[in-house]
Amino acid sequence: MATDSINANSSPDEIKALQTTLIEGGFLDPTYINAAGEEVQSIDGIYGSRTTAAAEALSSHTRQAAAMQEADSIPGGRTEQSLIEPTVDSLITLNPIF
């Protein structure tokens, strides 16, 4: 589900689908206690502060996961530079047991 296209102006059904995805992913609690002290369901079709925070957490998580996947075991600029002119910092980066 593309969460970037769902926002406060989306239909309640689209927001409910997003909320379901956020709950399944562990980014949104299925229920919460409202100001009146009542336990309410998070899947309500309203793009409120809880849904916004959960969607932002999912987006951040997705960006971090994508950045981590960029490591491809192919020597790049930092690796090549450390092989040409090794420094303590570059050796630690390449071999963290130092």
Question: Brief overview, please?
Answer:
With 98 residues, this protein is mainly alpha-helical. The protein contains four helices and two strands. The chain is globular and about 55 Å long.
Can you offer a commentary on this structure?
This protein is mainly alpha-helical. It is 50% helix and 6% strand. It is built from 4 helices and 2 strands; from the N terminus they run H-E-E-H-H-H. The protein has a two-stranded antiparallel sheet with strand order 1-2. The chain is globular, with a radius of gyration of 21 Å. The model is unreliable at 86-95 (pLDDT under 50).
Record the SSE blueprint:
Layout: H1 12-24, E1 31-33, E2 39-41, H2 49-69, H3 77-84, H4 88-94
Antiparallel strand pairs: 1-2
Defining key terms:
globular; 98 residues; mainly alpha; 4 helices; two-stranded antiparallel ribbon; single chain
Radius of gyration: 21 Å
Order of SSEs: HEEHHH
Which ranges are low-confidence, i.e. pLDDT below 50, for 5 or more consecutive residues?
A: 86-95
Q: Given the helix and strand composition, which structural class is it?
A: mainly alpha
Tell me about the largest β-sheet: 2 strands, antiparallel
Strand content of the residues, in percent?
A: 5-15%
Strand sequence of the main sheet, in spatial order? 1-2
Distance between the termini: 43 Å
Number of helices: 4
